[in-house]
Fold this sequence. Notes:
The first copy, chain A, is of the alpha+beta class. Helices cover 39% and strands 15% of the residues of chain A. Chain A folds into 3 domains: 4-65, Winged helix-like DNA-binding domain superfamily/Winged helix DNA-binding domain (Arc Repressor Mutant, subunit A), CATH 1.10.10; 75-138, Winged helix-like DNA-binding domain superfamily/Winged helix DNA-binding domain (Arc Repressor Mutant, subunit A), CATH 1.10.10; 148-219, Roll (SH3 type barrels), CATH 2.30.30. In chain A, the strands form 2 sheets. Chain A has a 6-stranded antiparallel beta sheet. The longest helix of chain A is centred in the N-terminal third of the chain and has 23 residues, at 67-89. Chain A is elongated. Residues 223-236 of chain A have low confidence and may be disordered. The complex binds manganese (II) ion (4 copies). The structure holds a DNA duplex.
Amino acid sequence: MLSATEENYLKALIKISEKNSVDGKVGTNELAVDLGVKPATVNDMLKRLKDKKLIDYEKYGKIKITKSGKKSGIEIIRRHRLWETFLFDKLKFTWDEVHEVAELLEHVNNPKLIERLDEFLNHPQFDPHGDVIPNSKGKIIIHFKKTLSNAKVGQAVKMVAMKENSDVLLKHLFELGLGINKTLKVIKIQPFDLSMNILVDKKAITISNKLAENIFVVCKECKVIGECNKKMCELE
Amino acid sequence: MLSATEENYLKALIKISEKNSVDGKVGTNELAVDLGVKPATVNDMLKRLKDKKLIDYEKYGKIKITKSGKKSGIEIIRRHRLWETFLFDKLKFTWDEVHEVAELLEHVNNPKLIERLDEFLNHPQFDPHGDVIPNSKGKIIIHFKKTLSNAKVGQAVKMVAMKENSDVLLKHLFELGLGINKTLKVIKIQPFDLSMNILVDKKAITISNKLAENIFVVCKECKVIGECNKKMCELE
DNA sequence: TATAAAAGTTAGGTTAATCTAACAAAAATT
DNA sequence: AATTTTTGTTAGATTAACCTAACTTTTATA
Ligand SMILES: [Mn+2]
Ligand SMILES: [Mn+2]
Ligand SMILES: [Mn+2]
Ligand SMILES: [Mn+2]
């Protein structure tokens, strides 16, 4: 059994090692900054995590999460993102409110709860920020995401994520009636500035090329999103 | 801010003092047994709870929860019962599975979460065990519950709770198609053994007087359940 | 009422998670 | 290569929540 604190270390380790994509190794100070604690505190915890075989680590060396550590960590990320989806879809929290509450809910460890929640939410693939929700086997489906600016006239695409999570972008999208999982159909592209006329919820709107470059989409017809731009998808 | 442990002490205190209805005072050992810890541990915590003005307590004296302690405690009970309702109504957990998970979820302290959950569940008044859910002001609507055995021929009543929560009773009710919030109409009462013919979901069933004495009901017509057997309610 | 039983307290110890302050090793810069 | 900066470790404290063992007070009962 993992404590909430240990769970947070694993999440942080996964997040940072994804950023440090060279070798996926992480430093003590880096972890301390991310978790908002002192390096001495991290050092203590590293010993416990090593004992539990959740990390590989030698004194003065770099930290590397183990297979087992990653498995647990991904499970926490799954819980976090499912709760975010619940809060957004069902309880009508806004995009920027969900994270804080999910930070608490993610530590409630009951497998049946998470499976039932997943079912209740209709096995969502993305959380409200467009991040992929790992499946119940801990597998993260890799999405070959393209931006809306790659879509062609006449094409229908599904919005799956945003390039950044800033408030200005979010508010802008909200005002335009855009959001995760919405279906967009490209009506026209202006050759001059590449701005697009698109159809959302039967309403025609115009969006700039700059905005289109910040919206990740997948081909509407693709059932298996992970295989999107391989065979049938028209997005390039 | 209260820790999960402190919250559990307040819940236990409210539960036990309701049972010790003479003066509502509780002893150290009693609390220890209920919480599954040693009396010495309780003694430690009593000092902390007293410092936080959540209990009144003098050395070798009895423990009495304060106004403020009760307010917090009822808030936890509200969360617990709302989560139980969520698990039962939305995630299709069974009656006997919800408590364990709600024990964890109840400690997630976010007011907006609870208000939204309450809304999402349509402001339920009872949890899946028939216990009253305190409202957002911490008020517990007092129900003048009567057992089904008090109902008269021709009367329609709503099932609100069970006298006990045993598995045998639950299974029996389930097999008969009975459950919380179901509307029951009394068709006939056998003078010999007081067994009842009742209508549930348009189906006629027969139940023994013993069972009828274990089912709490309120008059179907009463909007304000708390005022049930005062004015309009036919139940006596 | 004296004594035994029950209830409650205290002292001293443990563990997880945090801290500060001092120190040591590794890396970067001159 | 020497020095400085950055990074990481250790020692020693603290706090909440638990424990055991010994002790004290209250209550019950012979
Ligand atoms: Mn988040
Ligand atoms: Mn967290
Ligand atoms: Mn319960
Ligand atoms: Mn609890």
